[in-house]
Amino acid sequence: MPAPPAHTPRKAALAFIFLVVLIDVLAFGLIIPVLPHLVEEFTGSAAGAALWIGIFGTVFATIQFASAPIQGALADRYGRRPVILLSCLGLGLDFIIMALAPTLWWLLLARVFSGVFSASFSTANAYVADITPPEQRAKRYGLIGATFGVGFIIGPVIGGWLGGIDLRLPFWFAAGLALLNFCYGLFVLPESLPPEKRARRFDWTSARPHASLLFLRRYPAIWGLAAVVFIANLAHYVYPSVFVLFADVRYGWGPREASWVLALVGVCSVIVNVLVIGRVVKAVGERRALLLGLSCGVVGFVVYAFASEGWIFLLGLPISALWALAAPATQALITRQVDVDMQGRVQGALMSLVSVAGIIAPISFASVFGLFISDRAPVAFPGAPWMLAAVLLALAVLIAWRHARPAPVAEVAAQP
C-alpha cells in the first residue's frame, strides 16, 4: 500500500510517530518483568540468570551496532516510513520466537532478530527532526520521552500481571502489539522526508558500522555530545541488565512487585517529560538542562546502590527521573549542528554508539552483580552495579560541562 500523503499536517504526523513509539515501548515493557525469570528457569540460579541476561544484551547490541547505520542510511535514501514498518514487523516475529523458545539458545536467536529490526527509535528521532523547527526539538524530544514513560507505566504492569499467569504470555501479547503497530503504520503513518530532501544514493561504504562512527568526524562540534550519549547509555543499561534480579535478591520482589516499581518509574518519567523539560529548557537553556539531568542521575544511582530497604530505593526514583532532562537536551543540541539530509545518518551513527555501549554494558553490569552476590565477593554488595553507573554518569557530567555549547540566546528566547 502506498504511503499516505507526505503533506499531512505536522501535528498529525507527530501524533502518528508518538503512537508508533508508544506501542513499541509498550511491547518491550511487557517482557521486562518476566524475561529474567524465564532465563532463571533455564539456568536454575540468579547468578546464572544474570550472566545470561548480560550475554543476551551484548548479542543484541552487537547485532544492532551492525544494523543501525544501514537502517539510518536507508531512512535517508528511501524515507523514514519503510524503515519503521520493517522494524515493527521484525519485532513482532521476534516476540513470537521468544514466546515459543524451549531453550536458552532460542532466546539468543530472538535477541539476534531484535537487534536487526529495532530501528524504530532512532528513525523516530530523525522523523521528529524532519517535521520540527530546531528551536522546538528539545520540547518534542521530551514528548517522545514522555511516550516512553507511558509505555513503561502500562507495559510492565500488564507484563507482570500476565507473567503471574504464565511467564510466556507477555511475549504473545507483545507480539500482537508489534504486529498491530505494523498495520497501523502501513495504513496511517505518513512519510516525513520528501524525495527532494533524500540522499541521492545508498552508500554501502558509509553504512558499514565503523564507517558510521567515522562519519561523526564531519561534525567535530558534536564529538563531546556524542561521548555523552555513549556514556549515558552505558550507564542506562544497568536497568535492563540487573534491575529485576537485583529487586528479587535485595528486596524479595517478584515479577508483579518489580512491574509496579517499573510503572512508578514510568510515571515519574512522564511527569518530567511533560511538565518539566519544556519549562527547564526554556528557563535555563539546553546546556544547563543537560548538566542538571546528568547530575540528578548520579544522585539517583547512589541512592539505589546503598538502599538497604525497598522504600529507600523508591525515594531515589523521583531524583533519578530528572535524568530525563538530559536526553532531549542532548538531541536538540546535536540536531542544530547537522544538515537536514544527514539527520538520519547522524542518528544512525549515534545509535551505533548506543549499540557499542550495549555490547560492553550488559555483560559488565551482570558480571559485577553476579560477583557481588556470590560466595567469591570481597564484600556482599548487590548495589555495586548502580554505583558503577553513578561513576559513569559523573564522567558524562564532566564531558558535558566541557563540550556542550549553549544555543544562541535568540533561539532560546524563542522557545515556547
TrEMBL record:
InterPro entries, per database record: MFS, MFS_dom, MFS_trans_sf, Tet-R_TetA/multi-R_MdtG-like
Keyword Transmembrane helix appears in the UniProt entry: yes
Subcellular location: Membrane
Keywords in alphabetical order: Membrane, Transmembrane, Transmembrane helix, Transport
Domain spans labelled Major facilitator superfamily (MFS) profile: 13-408
Classification via PROSITE patterns: MFS
MF terms in GO: transmembrane transporter activity
PANTHER family, per database record: MAJOR FACILITATOR SUPERFAMILY (MFS) PROFILE DOMAIN-CONTAINING PROTEIN, MAJOR FACILITATOR SUPERFAMILY DOMAIN-CONTAINING PROTEIN 10
Protein name: MFS transporter
Source taxonomy: Bacteria, Pseudomonadati, Pseudomonadota, Gammaproteobacteria, Lysobacterales
